[in-house]
Amino acid sequence: MVTVAYLTLGPDLPVPVGGTDAEHAYWAPVEDLDRDGTRLAFDHSEILAEALEEVRRKLEYTPVATAFCAPEFTLSELRTVYEVVWGQSMDPSSFRRKVLKTSGFVEPTGEQRMPATGRPAALYRRGNAWVLSPPLLRTGGQPA
């Protein structure tokens, strides 16, 4: 038996529609799989773990995290993408410093958003970089 896995990243994915062999298709958080009676067949847990690690690596070396934000976003919203995918919290000021010193990662729009509380947050958009240099590494460079 051969398993073929495809990895795709995208915001706002449509509700999955199952076919004959997967009529009950649904999206599920990665952390919920292989728990609570939901078991993956064969070696699919290992395949999923490798795919998740590949996504985590892509966030270190590419600006793909910006695709999961609105066209204009705050650095806090961008940080949330990293925190969710990496499964670890990040120091806001350290994250801000790293993002802003990475050439072409983000560019300021010159606009601000007023949050419900606190001071206005600067808005950014994706920059022109395809590779982040220096990369934005996870703490310890390992998955959480």
Give keywords.
single chain, 144 residues, alpha+beta, Arc Repressor Mutant, subunit A, two-stranded antiparallel sheet, 3 helices, 2 strands, 28% helix, elongated
Describe the fold and architecture.
The chain is 28% helix and 10% strand. With 144 residues, the chain is of the alpha+beta class. It has one domain: Winged helix-like DNA-binding domain superfamily/Winged helix DNA-binding domain (Arc Repressor Mutant, subunit A, Orthogonal Bundle). It has a two-stranded antiparallel sheet. A hairpin with a 7-residue loop joins strand 1 and strand 2. The protein is elongated and about 55 Å long. It starts with 43 loop residues before the first helix and ends in an 18-residue tail after the last strand.
Enter the CATH topology name.
Arc Repressor Mutant, subunit A
Give the percentage of residues in beta strands. 5-15%
Radius of gyration: 18 Å
Order of helices and strands: HHHEE
Query: Would you state the CATH class?
Result: Mainly Alpha
Poorly predicted regions are none
- The number of E-state strands comes to 2
What is the helical fraction, as a range of percent?
A: 25-40%
Silhouette: elongated
Distance between the termini: 31 Å
Number of domains: 1
Describe the secondary structure blueprint for this structure:
Elements: H1 44-61, H2 75-86, H3 92-101, E1 106-113, E2 121-126
Antiparallel strand pairs: 1-2
Structure, briefly:
The chain is built from 3 helices and 2 strands; from the N terminus they run αααββ. By secondary structure, the chain is α+β, with helices and mostly antiparallel strands.
